[in-house]
Amino acid sequence: MNTEATIESQREKAPARLRQVRRIITGENAHGKSVFVSDGPAPNHTSDPSLPLAHVLWATGEAAAPGNEPAPAGHAFAFHSKGGSLLRVVDFPPDENYDTSGLTRFLDEHGVRDTGSARHFWFHKTQSLDYAIVLEGEIYALMDEGETLMRPGDILVQRATNHSWSNRSGKSCRMAFVLLDVEPGAKI
Question: Are 158 and 134 within 8 A, CB to CB?
Answer without folding.
Answer: no
